[in-house]
Design brief:
This protein is of the alpha/beta class. It has 21 helices and 13 strands. Bound molecules: glucose-6-phosphate.
């Protein structure tokens, strides 16, 4: 059981509060007078650099934050997490995605059982399967090679594979394409079916439960479309499934040879390193998929064994708490300066907001302090031409993570330098701002009236994360870094990060509404807005 300590009742929290009052108006320009600041406030771990010097902190701030970690016994919680204890208490499950990328030679216990044989058995099957797909040894019902993979899944069974396959596009097998269908909107599957040749397509139904409404609707649509060309028996060739629900998969008609299992100790949004990554392995090949798992594992080890003051996920988490709970920042922007990472903010939205968007603590009591921030973002430089105005000059404090990649896969003229100079300039501008004294001399006399609008307050905090290059290993490291940041924050906020009861109510109500939309029955006990919207939908359908 995780400890249940209200962070705001700790001595460290009170010290942080008084410390905040003392330093809240200090400008980053002042902090930056210290020429050693970068030296003290950055960490290089393999090919990943984390620079946190552009934050509104002093060494003293960090000391108070480390005291908070010790007072709530964060090291003890990390130990419980890696020991595979049942820390997802509201679902009575362990949370052990780290086992999925742990080497076969090391035991990894989940609730007292060493799971490494199971994990590596499935990994071996994934290796054989993906190698057979890529080599052409495994073929479609027509005997043709597979050229298209369609992953059908949603939420945790979609966002990870989408993000990773996009991020690792340079590693895709030539002449193979991967597609994703997630939305129950029939237009989504329609668009994908339009693009593929059914005779050369492998459908992967990715669903932990194999009962998710959206996924089952799309899987059935794919099956019905397939049956126009092939027979029921042919499904065995062109469909595969990733699930914990063996029975459900079998009754869908998928052959046991194409079933890949995972376990209830893998949460949906933490499942990208499980068999849910099958579509990734098919498209980038098993060697690259292994390198991705190794990167995740390397960061797991860093998180587990590195002291607080050198531990990247812990520092990221503490900085987030500092802004969220003391500066009252209510959102956090993630801004990747790499086009291949364009789905990274969407992936993090689920990871972070579904985990830490909670308002009841581990004792079951309502919380009276802020928990998870709103996470959002967009690839740079596109974001610069859209919403950066608000980050620079709006009324809200928005801490940002800038993520840059040093070596581009596609060096074209000086474009990559143009990208990186924007990355660096933005973090500099957010930090330094532009004072009245700096603006004034630049403005012609007859334009002095616009002077107030050209001032940048600055003092806007950023983290800079640099990868030497974007490859399977560094991507794995980046991803695990955020996974563990979320763990640390949720633990300190005294919430349960690994359940998601908040997504249930809407699903339940949708079941009640569906019959009313489909026929003339009326849904029970509806409010007047919903009732009238249903009426209008029906009326416009008849028209
Ligand atoms: C993630 C959630 C959720 C889940 C989807 C899909 O942590 O649990 O996003 O991944 O609802 O669920 P299935 O994989 O069971 O279809």
């Amino acid at each position: 059981m995780l400890k249940k300590i209200n962070p705001t009742s700790t001595a460290a929290w009170s010290n942080l509060q008084s410390h905040f009052e003392r330093i809240k108006n200090v400008h980053l320009r002042e902090w930056m007078q210290d020429g050693e600041r970068f030296e003290r406030f950055h960490i290089i771990f393999e090919d990943l650099l984390f620079d946190y010097s552009k934050n509104r902190i002093s060494q003293q701030t960090l000391e108070h934050l480390f005291d908070l970690c010790r007072e709530v016994d964060l090291p003890g919680a990390i130990h419980q997490f890696f020991e595979g204890q049942l820390i997802n208490e509201t679902e009575n499950r362990a949370v052990s995605h780290m086992a999925l990328r742990s080497p076969a030679t090391k035991s990894f216990f989940v609730n007292g059982k060493n799971v490494q044989d199971d994990v590596h058995h499935v990994l071996n099957r994934i290796r054989q399967f993906t190698e057979a797909i890529q080599s052409g040894n495994k073929r479609s019902f027509t005997g043709e090679r597979f050229t298209d993979i369609v992953n059908i899944g949603i939420g945790g069974s979609d966002l990870g594979p989408v993000m990773v396959t996009e991020a690792l596009k340079p590693y895709h097998a030539p002449d193979m394409h991967v597609h994703f269908v997630s939305n129950v909107d029939p237009s989504h599957i329609h668009q994908v079916l339009q693009k593929i040749n059914i005779r050369r397509t492998l459908f992967i139904v990715a669903s932990k439960t194999f009962t998710t409404q959206e996924t089952m609707a799309n899987a059935n649509a794919a099956k019905n479309y397939f049956l126009k060309y092939g027979t029921e028996d042919d499904i065995a060739y062109n469909f595969a499934a990733v699930s914990t629900n063996e029975k459900g998969v079998q009754s869908f008609g998928i052959s046991p040879a194409h079933q890949f299992e995972f376990w209830d100790w893998v949460g949906g949004r933490y499942s990208v390193s499980s068999a849910i990554g099958l579509s990734i392995a098919c498209i980038i090949g098993f060697t690259n998929f292994s390198a991705f798992l190794d990167g995740l594992h390397a960061m797991d080890q860093h998180f587990r064994h590195t002291p607080l003051d050198k531990n990247i996920p812990i520092l990221m988490a503490l900085l987030g708490i500092w802004y969220n709970n003391f500066f009252e920042a209510d959102s956090h922007a993630v801004l990747p300066y790499d086009q291949y990472l364009h789905r990274f903010p969407a992936y993090l939205q689920q990871l972070d907001m579904e985990s830490n968007g909670k308002s009841v603590d581990r004792k079951g009591e309502a919380i009276n302090y802020q928990t998870g921030p709103i996470v959002w973002g967009e690839a740079g430089t596109n974001g610069q031409h859209a919403f950066y105005q608000l980050i620079h000059q709006g009324t809200k404090l928005i801490p940002c993570d800038f993520i840059g990649v040093v070596n581009s896969h596609n060096p074209i003229a000086n474009q990559h330098n143009l990208l990186l100079c924007n990355f660096l300039a933005q973090t500099q501008a957010l930090m330094m701002g532009k004072s009245i004294e700096e603006v004034e001399p630049e403005l012609p006399r007859d334009q002095q009236d616009i002077l107030p609008f050209k001032i940048f307050e600055g003092n806007r905090p950023t983290n800079s994360i640099l990868l030497k290059s974007l490859n399977p290993r560094t991507l794995g490291m980046l991803l695990a870094m955020y996974e563990h940041k979320v763990f640390v924050q949720g633990y300190i906020w005294n919430i349960y990060s690994f359940d998601q009861w908040g997504v249930e109510l809407g699903k339940q109500l949708a079941k009640n509404i569906l019959p009313a939309l489909q026929d003339n029955s009326t849904a029970s006990s509806l409010d007047s807005s919903t009732e009238n919207l249903i009426e209008q939908i029906k009326k416009w359908r008849k028209d």
